[in-house]
Write a structure and sequence with these properties.
392 residues; 11 helices; alpha+beta; 27% strand
Length: 392
C-alpha cells in the first residue's frame, strides 16, 4: 500500500486523543517536518488554540490578525516566507463546510514543494474528518476550543448545537451566537438529506441553566418530530405539546422553522415567536414578513401553519434573534432596522460560514456595552439545484 494509504489506516486506528501524534509522526517521516500543530478556533471565534499540552492559551494566536487566522478566514492553504531554513505551511481543517481550525506544519526549505503542499492539504482534510469522529470519546479537542471557562448553561447549549457551518452544492449555511461562553437560551439546528434542508432557530425564555433546560427540551422535541417524517408545521405542533406538558405555559420558546426543497427550489417557514428573517437579494435587504404564530408551549394544543418564502438562487437569508434586532446603542438608538441593514450589507461578500460572526462583531461595536441577552445570527446562501423550479 502507498504511504498515504498506510497513514490513513493508522489515523483511523489511532486512539481518539492521539490523532495529532500520528499526523506529526507521518509528516516527520515522509516530509522531514520539524513541527506539526493543530490549532482549533475557540467558541468565541477570537483565537486559534493548539491541541494538547497544558499551555494552550500561551500558544494561541489571534484569529483575525495572524497567518493561521488568515488561512482560517480564506480557506486557502498558504506558506509563510522562508525563515532560518524552514517554511511554515498553514492548511485549513474543514469538514463539510464547518471550519474547525488550521494545521501548521514546519518543513525544511528544500522539502517545501508544491507536491508536498498538496499532500499536507490532504492530510489536514483527513485529520478533520477523523477528529469529528474522535470527539465522541475524548475531551481533548473540546478543551482546545476554550479560551476561558464555559458556564454550565453554555456547556449544555454548545453540546446541543448541530455545528457552526455546513455546505452542499445547493446551499451554504453558517451560524454563531454570543456571548459564546455564557449563552443561555438561543440555539440553532439543521438537518439535511437528499431531498432538502430543515432549519430551526430557537430562543427560550430565562437565563442560565433553566433557559438551557427549556431549550434542550424544545430542540430534542423538534428533532424527534422531524425524525418521525412530519412537516415543519407538525414539528412545531408536537414540540409545542412537549413544552406545554412540562411547563404549562409558565415558560415558552420563540422559534422559527424553515424547510427547503432541493428539487423544486421552494422554501417554507413557520414563525412561532421572535426570531426575524431577513433577505439580501442583489443590492437590497428586506425583512421577510411572516405570519406571527404563538411561541411553542405558550398555550395548549396550538395549531401551526406553513407559508412559502419568496426565494431565488443567489439570495442570502439571515435569521437574527431578539438579542440582535432589539439591541440599542449607548444613545438608545435601535440596531434594527437601519444599522442591521448596514451590517448585512457590510458582510455581504463574506461566505455564509463567516458572516454571522462578522455581523455579531458589528453589533458589539454598535452596542459598545455588555448585554445579558443572547445574540444569534444564522446565514444561508441559497444556490439552488440546476434545473429546479426556484422562482420568486
Amino acid at each position: 500500500m502507498s504511504s498515504m494509504a498506510d497513514f490513513e489506516r493508522s489515523l483511523r486506528g489511532a486512539a481518539p486523543h492521539a490523532l495529532v501524534d500520528v499526523v506529526r509522526d507521518h509528516l516527520a517521516a515522509c516530509h522531514g517536518a520539524t513541527a506539526t500543530t493543530l490549532l482549533l478556533a475557540d467558541f468565541g471565534l477570537a483565537v486559534l488554540q493548539p491541541v494538547g499540552g497544558t499551555e494552550q492559551r500561551a500558544g494561541s494566536v489571534p484569529l483575525h490578525s495572524s497567518a493561521a487566522g488568515r488561512v482560517f478566514g480564506s480557506q486557502e492553504p498558504r506558506a509563510e516566507p522562508p525563515r532560518d531554513g524552514e517554511v511554515v505551511h498553514h492548511l485549513p481543517v474543514t469538514v463539510r463546510g464547518e471550519r474547525l481550525g488550521v494545521l501548521a506544519v514546519r518543513l525544511p526549505v528544500d522539502r517545501s514543494t508544491d507536491a508536498a503542499a498538496g499532500e499536507l492539504a490532504h492530510v489536514a482534510e483527513v485529520l478533520g474528518h477523523e477528529m469529528v469522529v474522535a470527539e465522541r470519546d475524548t475531551d481533548l479537542y473540546q478543551l482546545a476550543r476554550r479560551a476561558s471557562r464555559l458556564t454550565l448553561a453554555a456547556e449544555m447549549q454548545w453540546q446541543l448545537l448541530s455545528g457552526r457551518a455546513f455546505s452542499q452544492p445547493e446551499y451554504e449555511i453558517g451560524a454563531h451566537l454570543e456571548p459564546a461562553y455564557a449563552v443561555h437560551g438561543d440555539n440553532f439546528d439543521w438537518s439535511s438529506d437528499s431531498a432538502g434542508l430543515t432549519v430551526a432557530v430557537t430562543d427560550g425564555m430565562g437565563e442560565g441553566v433553566p433557559a438551557s433546560l427549556l431549550t434542550t427540551l424544545t430542540v430534542n422535541a423538534l428533532r424527534n418530530a422531524r425524525r418521525a417524517g412530519v412537516d415543519i408545521a407538525d414539528q412545531a405542533a408536537l414540540a409545542d405539546q412537549a413544552v406545554w406538558a412540562q411547563y404549562r405555559g409558565s415558560l415558552y420558546v420563540s422559534t422559527l422553522l424553515m424547510s427547503f426543497d432541493l428539487d423544486s427550489g421552494r422554501a417554507y417557514a413557520v414563525d412561532a415567536g421572535s426570531p426575524q428573517l431577513w433577505r439580501r437579494r442583489g443590492r437590497s435587504v428586506d425583512r421577510i414578513a411572516l405570519d406571527a404564530q404563538f411561541p411553542l408551549g405558550m398555550f395548549e394544543e396550538s395549531d401551526y401553519r406553513m407559508q412559502e418564502i419568496d426565494l431565488l438562487p443567489g439570495d442570502r437569508l439571515l435569521v437574527v434573534s431578539d438579542g440582535v434586532y432589539q439591541a440599542v446603542s449607548p444613545d438608545s438608538e435601535p440596531y434594527a432596522p437601519k444599522a442591521l441593514v448596514r451590517g448585512i450589507q457590510a458582510t455581504s461578500l463574506l461566505p455564509a460560514a463567516s458572516a454571522p460572526g462578522a455581523l455579531l462583531h458589528e453589533l458589539a461595536a454598535y452596542r459598545r456595552t455588555e448585554t445579558p441577552d443572547d445574540a444569534l445570527v444564522m446565514c444561508l446562501d441559497w444556490h439552488g439545484r440546476e434545473g429546479s423550479g426556484s422562482r420568486g
